[in-house]
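Changelog-adjacent note: as of this version, every example in the card shows the full chain rather than a window. The one below runs 246 residues end to end.
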Amino acid sequence: MQQQSEFNSDGAILVDKPTGPTSHDVVAAIRRRFRIKKVGHCGTLDPNATGLLVVVVGRGTKLSNKIIASDKAYEGVIKFGEITNTHDATGEILSSHPVPELTIESLNETAAGFIGDQMQMPPMHSAIKQNGVPLYKLARKGKEVERKSRLIHIYRFHFTDYTPPFGGFEVTCTKGTYVRTLVHELGEIIGCGAHLHDLRRTMSGRFKIENAVEFNRLLEMPLHEFQKHVLPVSVIPEYAEAPLDP
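Full-length structure tokens:
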């Protein structure tokens, strides 16, 4: 579609990413649709994950590190009794195990053990690069390489419901936390294994999913309407740097 004028805004756009596209796909589509020279995203979401993706445009790209460094909040669903090679529902099932009698109370008691600082090993199926090659590409070739553990902090890990074998949960954490790895480790402690079935990001800093625009709807907007959704550069530090409530 031809645009009537050039894009001339700087700042951040809150996008509600659907299942399917990668974070890079979202950025590329917005760049093509609105002919934006400088555009990027702040914090990768896996293709099967949904929710808040903060996209920065123009001079807003210079503040992307502030947003990436902010704390994140998610809600999701865990499936107990199955272990996958990716720690989520997109992977190959490696093993299945009987699920013990679980309750929300028992799940929250176990989840409470994850609260605080901890070292987390990034999964092989991740976008982290080693010698310039993303780990997931090596994993697809059946290779596993040594990774460095990262210091993360879990502020909150709480189950909201449980209908065997699925458990709904909420988690608030620092940047760089792999929620699917957290889920995998929880399954190991319980003894039956588990993987991440669904994940939705609800907050990044003080940016909220309630204020995001659905990705497909965004692409259908004329340029002048799209620009109305660009948050100015001046507000980004205020939203990005504010810590989340535990």
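Structural remarks: The CA atoms of residues 125 and 140 lie 8 Å apart.
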